[in-house]
Amino acid sequence: MKGSTAWTGAFATVMVALACATPTAAQIGPLTAPRLPGLPSGVTDRLPEVGRVDGLADRLVDDALRAPSRLTGLARRSRGALEVDPLGWPVVASEIVAIDLSDDARRAAVEAGYRVLREERLEALDLTTTVLAPPPRLSLARAVTRLQALAPGAEIAFNHVHTPAGETASADAARARPGPPPGDARLGLIDTGVDAAHPALAGSRVSQRGFAGAPRVGAHGSAVASLMVGRSGAFSGGAPGEALLVADIYGGEPAGGSSTALAQALAWMVEQDVAVVNVSLVGPRNGLVQRAVARAQARGVIVVAAVGNEGPAAPPLYPAAYEGVVGVTGVGARNQALPEAARGPHVDFAAPGADMAAAGAGGGWTSVRGTSFAAPIVAGLLATRGEAVLSEQAADLGARGRDPVYGSGLVGTTSRTPPSSVGARGRLRR
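Below the sequence we write its predicted structure tokens.
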């Protein structure tokens, strides 16, 4: 489900393929220059190797994977909690994640000056993670490269930070209400904490747990949760009244949304036998998250994710672009794709993502816009109908059949509540 003789068209095709298949440069070994279909004979033979710093192909691959410009300022505003990887993606400062690090490799790393910060066994995902700090006076990027050489059998990654599909939502001052024990919730949400006391969620059993400190109410998570299970008067989410398990991976912290927290949240969802998990967050390809998603899927969990709002020419964002993840785009009131929404083979469904209301602050309502708010509608529908039925019910838009703009088609239009009908105030984007 995920996976011309004109020079420009051919090169663009290859660059899209590279963006879909290539991890962050610091997490992979040297590449060779790609052969570009449709180029005159001998042209690709003259391209420099990708591994060369001054190589044309190297620069093009880097550009295809580079972080969107809006994320470059996150590290500067974090007061030292974040830094960036070589391609500009925000990461937790001074943290390297090693997956399934052997005892020998761990000893070698410690002898080389690395410091073990914490270790964790995620039994539900059959994963062991070791988080290390780099040796003194060694940059994080160089430390990652050196650790790869010390532990060739382990997967080494930055601790990337994921943001709510387009921009970071600020957390409110109040702590989120933990709620009753998880019980038999079939739906899970990985996001900020939610306002479980909001009228839209009053009829749902909401249980919350924090993975970056105590859970805290966030505008983004509250809006997404309401579109997933909410019900109040004219307002109705994708699975109104269903129980919801919420994993807050932000906790109001500058380094919230880390890959390690996301993996922990997924493990918790598996432990609680959740059937469908919504992740309206975006980030780069990350070895830990990719493996955690795959392990959760192998245990029967359907992962739904927003495809992001960086524009139709942007490279695929994750987790939506991981194999098997249900990627969701958003449409406006006229059922046309949002111009800022991502496109590509990882788009599986379209759902309302603008010109609609969702839960707002203080028990009120707000207008929302972005793929973040389309994904929870699809997640709710999948939990109650299943993917096969949902595909049959989808309204075919755009090119006939499945296409990279709308995927299998539009669903969930009854969950679009006009802002005026509930007296919505303000606007929450993306």
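The CA atoms of residues 194 and 291 lie 27 Å apart.
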